[in-house]
């Protein structure tokens, strides 16, 4: 009997609200950042440059999925899943090929000329602008819904109020978990995965040990492009398809890659989740959690109704501060990534 | 091989012909306006060429530095807002500043507690807690002040000081922000500076856009005072021409000083650092310190140019700052004109800016006629937002120019003059 008494006294409503708006939201956006950051960290580790068009590559991947959905609108019904998710593997392949093609046309000639890495970064900014221009030229600037019709919603009863999770969110979480496992086995068990790790650790040593640079570079782009497409599609499925995402998602992804340590895929995943959680918890209204305490504090002390660390419109500040803090205290990141100059 | 002199001559005369064409076609008032804006961009491009061409620093946050300089210039030179000074606003703001000062002092004290024998991990924890608490206290004090100012006085207003002082302080603000960026990112991977400057420019924009009590936000502040008589007093052509005189003098001064500096031992040291960092460091040069110097100097010039640009437009609109117009366009000017060559940069700025503003009507014209043609031939229905989409074509072209120049003409139109010491 005493147990129910304690349960009743516990602020269950507020706690569930915190799980929904704080933890689940953080997990969702963190997973998107993680999928993007894996690509960025691999490119930065192996090709030694920061890949600025990554945000637009995500958008491009989402658009591939969107076009496929328009072409085969009934594919989802076969599996009982959202159509864009079923067609996502095709979009991933398309984006991976696209990424390899961009590398051929724009980055490889510069690498062959032995330019400074910073020049390739600049070229990547040029590519970013071209992709932005093309996407907005063909798709306009307004947001679209990936799939018409309502999303399935799962409600898990939890002490009075429900924990709410939509189908796209569940798919995103499951997909990210699957990627982590697959990436782990690929990097530790397969020949190519080991070659990639060797290349990220010491490019010259890897080359004289007979590892083919071309193969490794191609695989890197395939993984980065595919994961970017998946992240873009899943994000668009959860919220909406926005053609002008780029900078707003680029900064958290860079922050995640640097926090995790350049060239460390596990670090990128941890960093993505860290940035995602910090971002959501910083804009979360902690006043809600304090509300149940009101009866217990003295009358003169009024607890604030709204207590968020950062107003929502300044959300972009958070990844930036994480980035700055890491650069000041631990430039190699949590997982001790490479720090090539 | 065309000699440097011929190249420069062809470029100068080509630019002159273009300018003359614009004057003949669109009239003197428009032509002078274009020249003033181009000269402001040339000033900004000179600042960027110091950073990229002389020091090899990759600053992708030009927009943010322009915005902060324009804001400071607006704050200094805009007429005094009596409504604000007569309200409770200044008092409340004073309290907020006092809180901030106390918070900073307490946080600093907490970060020094290891001297009293506190273990390091508790010190970090204590510092974080004190920092977060004082941050919340400051925002808690600032919020009512902001609400009150917005309700009673719209915004803080300015200090009514001379415009040149505004430009100077704007440049200093941009330089100070660059100094902070440089302190953090110099000495790390070169890309980190690009990421950090990109981030700070987006943050500056977000701040200026949302701090309504300081900048009126999306409502915009206008008219900004000019350093020269306004069109109401002198007419469009004369007032704009006198503005052009001011910016031209600035360009000449900066150009002469830079050429002198570049030929001096200081310039030689900078080239050495850029071309071979390792051997320069081995000769005892403090590489990162010198780079910081360059970053701050370049940012100062970017700031002055940016303040001049926004002052000329007479309207301070935080939403109008776009990475494309205020960062990447300037990058195209610098790398196309010739990074590390001051004359090339100035000419590049003029050329690119003329092409840029002519490209807007050109793109609209092309797309409209293309859509009409497609409609006639295939019955294709153009989307309703064709005009906004047509302008996106310019984003694509800017990106294409950057990649093409880097690959096929990394030296730009006027390559850097290699100085030989006999």
Describe what this molecule looks like in 3D.
The complex is a heterodimer of chains A (341) and B (422). Chain A is mainly α and 341 residues long. Chain A has one domain: ABC transporter involved in vitamin B12 uptake, BtuC (Orthogonal Bundle), CATH 1.10.3470. Chain A is built from 14 helices and 2 strands; from the N terminus they run ααααααββαααααααα. In chain A, strands 1-2 form a two-stranded antiparallel sheet. The longest helix of chain A is centred in the N-terminal third of the chain and has 35 residues. Chain A starts with a helix and ends in a 12-residue tail after the last helix. Chain B folds into 2 domains: 308 residues, no CATH class; 72 residues. Chain B is built from 17 helices and no strands. Chain B is globular. Classes of the chains: A mainly alpha (341), B mainly alpha (422). The interface between A and B is large, with 55 and 50 residues.
